[in-house]
Amino acid sequence: MPLRDLLLGLFVIAIWALNIIVIKVGVAELPPLMMTTLRFMLVAALLVPFYPVARAQLPFLLLLSVTFGSLHFALLFIGLGQAEAGTGAILVQMGTPFATLLAVIFLKEKLGPKRIAGLLLSFAGVVVLAGGPTLPSPLPLTILLCSAMGWAVSQLLIKRGPPLAPMALAGWMALFAVPQVALGSWLFESGQWQAIQQASWLGWGAVLYTAVMSSIVAYGIWYALLRRHPVNRVVPMTLLVPVLAVGLGALLMGDSLGFHKLMGGGLVIAGIALIVIKFRRRPRAV
Q1: Three-state secondary structure along 198-267?
Q2: pTM exceeds 0.85 for this model
Q3: Where are the domains of the chain?
Q4: Most buried among 47, 124, 136, 239, by the most CB within 10 A?
């Protein structure tokens, strides 16, 4: 990979890792579902007018808005409000093992020994994390794992769904997710209007960052890299997201770096590496 593209990939990883910290800052000032609603409104306003889709594709986008918008993103924002940033980043990475299992069950994909080992390592890492002090109750663990499952289901839907431009998918999914998440905020949260009025530049900056930098800029660069390079050269870089998020959480948020987080996180990342990285056998010299 040329140095320019490698630096672009690392720039995207840095955006996504910092996004975990930014979400935590945002939900400290705005209710999580309200913040998610504002994020989706901004993404939809910036993308939908420029990326029209066919009417026949709307049912698929509506379904995706439930799994990707309401399940993944909304639960991610709620979970990060109750867990440390680094722990949350590690747990959300479990979307990859979940997607692997779902592909085996529903798409009849085969599991080799390497991927089975990766799954076992990943789930062992979650067990270690769950036994540590960074998750004081089972609730944040469950919420973040459900968020990861929402991501996994969405990846299978995207794989089997109609071909769509990435920005069109992001924009229309956000548009359809707005009323769902807004309804959830209205039913389960309170003080939204007061929070909006009292939010500082940090809260509004968090909404802007998660919408523009994380969703539009980062994904725009990422999909451009995927078009130019083999997936196996690009996707493994995402393993750096939880590593960087753990470091940023300790540096900026004062998160702990205990045994359970380092060991559990290491097991999760090692397991995901076995799942996503393809190792090529070198031909024997004659």
Answers
A1: HCCHHHHHHHHHHHHHHHHHHHHHHHHHHHHCCHHHHHHHHHHHHHHHHHHHHHHCCCCCCHHHHHHHHH
A2: yes
A3: 3-276
A4: 47
